[in-house]
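User: Hi! Is it possible to get a structure for several chains at once, not just one? Here's what I have:
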Amino acid sequence: MSDAAGDDGVGVEEMKVRRVAGTGVPVRGDDIDTDQIIPARFLKTTTWEGMDQYAFYDARRDENGELNDHPFNEYRGANVLVVNDNFGCGSSREHAPRALARWGVEAIVGESFAEIFADNCKSLGIPAATTDPETVEELQDFIEANPDAGIEVDVVDGTITYDGKTVDVDIDEAMRGALVQGIWDTVALLRSNMDAIDETAADLPYVDSRR
Amino acid sequence: MSERTLYDKVWNRHKVADLPNGQDQLFIGLHLIHEVTSPQPFSELRERGIEVPYPERNVATVDHIVPTRPEGRERPLADESAEGMLTALERNTAESDIQFYGLDSEKQGITHVVAPELGLTQPGMTVVCGDSHTATHGAFGAIAFGIGTSQVRDVLASQCVAADKQDVRRIEVDGRLREGVHSKDLILKIIAELGVDGGVGYVYEYGGEAVRDLSMEERLAVCNMSIEGGARAGYINPDETTYEFLRGREFAPDGEAFEERKAYWESVASDADAEYDDVVHLDATDLEPMVTWGTNPGQAIGISDPVPAPEHLPEGEREAARTAQAHTGVEPGESMAGYPIDVAFLGTCTNGRTSDFHEAAAVLEGREVHPDVRALAVPGSQTVKSKLEAEGVDDVFREAGFEWREAGCSMCLAMNDDSLEGDERCASSSNRNYVGRQGSKDGRTVLMSPAMVAAAAVEGEVADVRDLTGTGVDR
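Assistant: Yes, the chains can be modeled jointly so their relative placement is included. Here is the combined structure:
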């Protein structure tokens, strides 16, 4: 479960994510792209409904359309996804982290993330923490050997705790700031600077002043 | 940190404020909108009662889901979900007073083809779109990058994004591309050399003799695929090629205003003594036509090179290479020449521009598509299509046996009904060869230049275009 506190009183949706505790799901492999995470045919929608069914849709099925032994079939109920290098590369589709989140993912630990994917995680309040390849592999091995064992990602301290030990992970400063301060829905924040926006725009040679 | 680069200058001009989380608030000069990543943001704005503050800095078109057969474009569209997305975009843009080039417009097309050809994209701008191939617009000397749906909402609501400034890597390409070798080959080579994640954390600045020599359309193809190398943005400093391309375009200034604006464009180019976070050198002289053998765009080799044996690759790449080769069915040690293909696909935001079709037409002239190949020519925009038709180039494609289609993203990602079937193999001028990308999870994609797609279409297998056109000197 995610230790999130809601406060929607001021227009900015404040949802602080300080720690995520639960169990892990390892998805091994470098360069897992967003077409793997959610195939494009499931993007034909004007809402976010149904996204929970689509995470790794094709990868989770065999040639007869039956569910195979993909981790997303085997580790239901887990909430800490553990991945390798350059996870989420490819398309900008926010449907990808949304599909993961609706499946149950509340935090991701990996060797590295594609930038747009990491931005999308931040927009959704999903901490994406990075660590070295050895730690990732050890963590994946540990989860496979102990699928029910507890894992905790501490966003404030930048650590992950498993197997009785706590190790440091890297969480991008902007992401940590957004999650810990609870400002990842940036609409009101950006709009609070409307005068400065207008000044910046007025100073650009190609922008006419706002109507 | 970099200093006095175009990236630094344009960033500073567009920076609105420091945000509490350490990011910068950046003003967006051009926001491009399409039907896939915009419906939820517009709904959210409507729920919150927020109006778009700078509607004239936003432009929309419809590309991902549109049918490309003329008869399939009658409304309502046969595909109900596609019709729903199109209808939503029509309503959303009308309510927010945003320019929309819909299916009834002669300017409809792929966002990254439409904005450059209309002169909407200009040097010294910030450009975003809910699409990773927004990097394309960097070809003009703009900071252009893809954003997620929540960020699309932010831009609609404030004309700004919250962003982190990246490091700048200069990619200096010396020498000149030989005949039969194109900018697509160059960018595939760059990605193969630096890796599909080599650009994470960087913006790429492409320069050097080989890049200076490129036309604007060729430059667009290079910048387009920056994201396939992990770089969210890539750009080329503006020069006379850029300015001459813009002169006379619908949204470019004209007369005296053009010269005034040009002074701004010139001022944002990287200074001669600019400082970079990293510099990489490549030589274009010996570059061959490139083809992919695997399931990511970095798994690419020259047409006469052998497919690498996984055990000879760096340890971290071996498993992925084995999996990829099992999927594509290629044999290590053999070249990709002779790899049979079932489909030839020409178009996309990478290579769907007029010059791309000219390159392919030069190969197809007087030749026929192999009987076992179905071949699609999908112009990147209706403007490209009508220009080619006025020139009679469409006849070259039709007579060779290509289907001549209307503009859209089409079989790049198969969100319309243009799709690979089963385990078909496709010679494609698109940008991604991921598993399942072209609509069938067993389908195989070989990325290459438009000229190479034409050669593959004729031969029914991957072939060196220079063998067909007689430009393969010294071979």
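The two ends of chain B are 45 Å apart (CA to CA). Chain B has three domains: 6-163, 167-283, 291-468.

User: Great, thank you!
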